[in-house]
Amino acid sequence: MADSKGFTPDPPIRSRGLKIGCVGAGMIMAECHLAAYKEAGFPVASIASRTRDHAAAVAERWGIAKVHDTPEALIADPEIEILDLAYPPDQQPDLIRLALKQPHIKGILAQKPLSLTLDEAIAVRDEAEAAGKVLSVNQNMRYDQSMRVLK
């Protein structure tokens, strides 16, 4: 809904039909991403993490129907169209590269930092562009007061 100046707080949602696969079941995923997806009405189709038991507990909490044994199995699942990757930065680039090879994955949301080095982050960005896939890096808290104090 636009305010008196014609501004809307967020762009209109174009689709709620793309199925999301979540890799990672830590605090960011369990408390933030999955809550936001539920509120927005975005379908989370599956989840995986370093341990199946932890992923299963988060899946039960949020009503996610499918739990994969590994992140690689989730990425290979042809039902997944959007990959939300909340995983350690030393492991994200390999998972992103695997996702870029999957024809069913249209876009990837990765957490910061994208990798452990700037050179690898640039390489992954370029590989995503060459694959014709959207790769976004979540920059939550970038302008938060706590980040300004740390600077």
Characterise the protein shown here.
This protein starts with 19 loop residues before the first strand and ends with a helix. The protein has one domain (20-150): Rossmann fold. A six-stranded parallel sheet has the order 3-2-1-4-5-6, with helices on both faces. The mean pLDDT is 89. With 151 residues, the chain is of the alpha/beta class. Helix 4 packs parallel to helix 5. Strand 1 (20-23), helix 1 and strand 2 (44-48) form a beta-alpha-beta unit. It is 40% helix and 17% strand. 30% of the residues are buried. It has helices at 27-40, 52-62, 71-76, 92-100, 118-131, 145-150; strands at 20-23, 44-48, 66-67, 82-85, 107-111, 134-138.
Tell me the β content.
15-25%
CATH topology: Rossmann fold
Q: Note the main sheet.
A: 6 strands, parallel
CATH architecture: 3-Layer(aba) Sandwich
Strand order of the largest sheet: 3-2-1-4-5-6
The CATH superfamily label reads: NAD(P)-binding Rossmann-like Domain
> Regarding CATH, which class?
Alpha Beta
What is the alpha-carbon Rg in Å?
16 Å
Helix content: 25-40%
CA-CA gap between termini: 36 Å
Structural class label: alpha/beta
Any descriptors?
6-stranded parallel sheet; 6 helices; Rossmann fold; alpha/beta; 151 residues
